[in-house]
Amino acid sequence: MGVYNRAPLAFERGEGARLFTADGTAYLDCVAGIATTALGHCNPVLVNALKAQADKLWHVSNIYRIPGQDELADKLTAQSFADVVFFTNSGTEAVECALKTARKHHSHNGNPEKIDIIGFDGSFHGRTYAAVNAAGNPAYVEGFGPKLPGYIQLKFGDMEALKAAMGPTTAAIIIEPVQGEGGARAASDEMLRQMRALCDEHGALLIFDEVQSGMGRTGKLWAHEWSGVTPDIMAIAKALGGGFPIGACLATAKAADGMTVGAHGSTFGGNPLAMAVGIAAFDEIAKPETLANVIDVAGYLGQQLQGLKDRFPDVIVDVRGKGMLIGVKLIPNNRDFMALAREHNLLVAGGGDNCVRLLPPLNLTLDEAREAIEKFEQTCETARAKAAA
To answer: How many Cα atoms occupy the beta-carbon half-sphere of 17 within 13 Å?
Structure first.
């Protein structure tokens, strides 16, 4: 179906932070499959894990025990707020599970009227029906029939509106600690603390969508760790499989008390092949040296991009985000800028609010970061020249 506006590029292979076309042309990849190939392309640790499992067992049904699920769930819960995990194939499925978990919790505890999910403008939670309604982006909702009831959208950062919206029918607040598609806007620590307090006050649940911001992307395993706030439910995916399709919904035992036998399920979620890769990816990303590298390299990238903002005020409006989830708000059209970057063999992602995003692998080296800045600078120079022509 014609739903993608694809760039005129096709890649034959990848290695680390580089992608190669069939003729051998190399591109520095600061998209990473949209924050997904977090350990670079064809990382040998992940390749070996995939090959070893492929020789043993690919898929069975969730009607049987899958030991890899226990192992990965233990790792996730040991390094998070959560007590329980449900494995999915994608981020949007993890969000769907999170939304169902929240509503089921209230119904299970005798409060079926608590169905309202409060989200925020600029958010992106996936493409399935509940996920697009939770985000409320008109471009993703219109044309698909009536909007689902029980979904409320507020202005990002308007805490007074949020306070007014909370009430006896509120089931949950859902927020990305750092928005991805919405232009790399980071929720302040104080915002998240206030949301936690409001949820506690009104008996609602707090859902963090860390599909893009989680798994080391900000320099901590979870972006919400910077604030000291913990959610009741969290959706993760993308980097969890390093490029292999895996997602997960994490929750406290209390929040998931309604998710009893038969309440939810998945054919492929948590299959042996996915779990083998997920275990390998999690172990690599959770290493202190990986997270330290994110902080070091992100600090360099942020500093250098601020310098380019000062040098190119006619091109760059703002530099935002957290860690290696970086947004650069532009004056020229962001899609045109992405095309210019490709002319300099640099790949960057688009984003809302006329931003481009830099989402490089978490193990990007400082030398590769310098190269990225050089190519970004060259792109700014080309954009300036085109505007002046």
So the answer is: 21
Residue-level pLDDT at 345: 98
Dist CA 192 CA 186 (whole Å): 10
Residue from 124, 244, 312, 376 carrying the catalytic annotation: 124
* Euclidean distance between CA atoms 271 and 68, whole angstroms: 8
Interatomic CA distance for residues 255 and 233, integer angstroms: 7
Q: Of all residues in the chain, what percent carry a pLDDT higher than 70?
A: 100
Which is the catalytic residue, given 29, 209, 232, 353?
A: 209
209 catalytic per annotation: yes
Q: Which amino acid is at 214?
A: G
- Give the chain's length: 389
Q: What pairs with residue 28 in β-bridges?
A: 18, 346
196 φ/ψ angles, rounded to the nearest 5 degrees? -60, -45
Q: Exposed, middle or buried: residue 295 (CB in 10 Å: 0-12, 13-18, 19+)? A: middle
β-pair type (233-236, 205-209) = parallel
Yes or no: say if 273 and 264 are a contact pair by the CB < 8 Å rule. no
Q: What is the mean pLDDT of residues 285-294?
A: 98
Phi, psi (degrees; rounded to nearest 5) at 244 = -90, 140
- Residue 139 confidence (pLDDT): 87
User: Residues 238, 322, 329, 375: which is the catalytic one?
Assistant: 238
Distance, in Å, from the CA atom of 237 to the CA atom of 88, rounded to the nearest integer, reads 8
2-35 pLDDT per residue, tens: 999 999 999 999 999 999 999 999 999 999 999 9
Query: What pLDDT, in 10s, does the model give residues 63-72?
Result: 999 999 999 9
124 among known catalytic residues: yes
Sheet containing 84-88: give its strands across: 84-88, 247-251, 233-236, 205-209, 170-175, 116-120, 151-154
Catalytic-residue membership of 200: no
pTM (two decimals):
0.97
